[in-house]
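Work Package 3 (structural annotation) set out to generate three-dimensional models for the target panel prioritized at the project kickoff. During this period the team completed the workflow that converts sequence records into discrete structure tokens, so that structures can be stored uniformly alongside our sequence database. As a representative example, we reproduce one entry of 339 residues exactly as it appears in the project archive.
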Amino acid sequence: MRKLSALSIIALCWFLLVMEGCCLPIQNKPGNGVVFWAKNAGTPFQRFQLAKQNTPELIAFIRRMPKGADLHTHVSGATYAEFILERADGNKMNYDLNANVFTKKEADQSNGTPKKIISIQELKNNPAFLAQYLNAASMRGWYPNTTNGHDHFFSTFECFRQGKGEPEDIIPEMMARNRYEKIQYLELMVQCMPDDLADKFKQALPDFDLNNLEQMLAQTAPLMKDKTIEDAIHRYLDERETKIRQTPGLDYAITGNDGDLVIRYIVQVKRTGPLKDFFASALVSILAVNVDNRIVGLNVVAPEDDPASWESFNAQMKILDFLWNKMDKPKFTFHAGEL
């Protein structure tokens, strides 16, 4: 309800501001020397009219304006290449110039031949190397008539993974930026449970029969009743949020309705594996949605044009429809124009 009310309030405020447009006093018209942040600048609409005089003031005005929610936010795609570079430096990694990934391999010491592995310090100090990294790790490096944007986009994630950008490091950085922009609610797509939980459900399904999903669900019944599974989900998020709260300078609430930035999660189910893996992952993910109110929904991820995605799409939708009806109809999200 928090996110809906915030968005509704913004819509109402915008309507009221527009209605006030006919009441702009002459003394506060743009060009009369009044700035939008002055005490006597008038109503929000009048301040907006003043801010539109130039781009820097308009940016400052929009940044100050309270905003509702940022939904469907991929944590691994919402951070910046510069931040991952700092994480890699803190993790004492080096950089592979050929593969454009961070590595634990030793840096080349030779000065006579072209280097393959360089230190992070050399990467930072060499403008050509730094430009190569930033181009490889962000969409700034994609240009028409080069590699296609799709492939370039997905290749950036490997660089981020190798840089060891963990959610408990990335999320505080995201929170600081969003709070600065007056965002009130963040819905983050990120790992929400230990990897071994889905593995337990896979092991409970020695064979998988798409035409007998009732039996597949019955085979996992003992796990569905296992309290340790629920405890592991709670503990996983508790530990992450404890680490987040320990971030220096992060002195505001991140959960509950008493903070100025509320965080919720969307659990992700990967679409490119075998159907048995998809069923097990979807099952434990829906369980997570149902047992921990910090997890508000489920989303299917991985490239939509992967052969496993389009070959298995109908079967995966059948699985999700079955589990949705069997498990209290949790919230699902899908990309617009899915496949």
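The longest strand covers residues 262-270.
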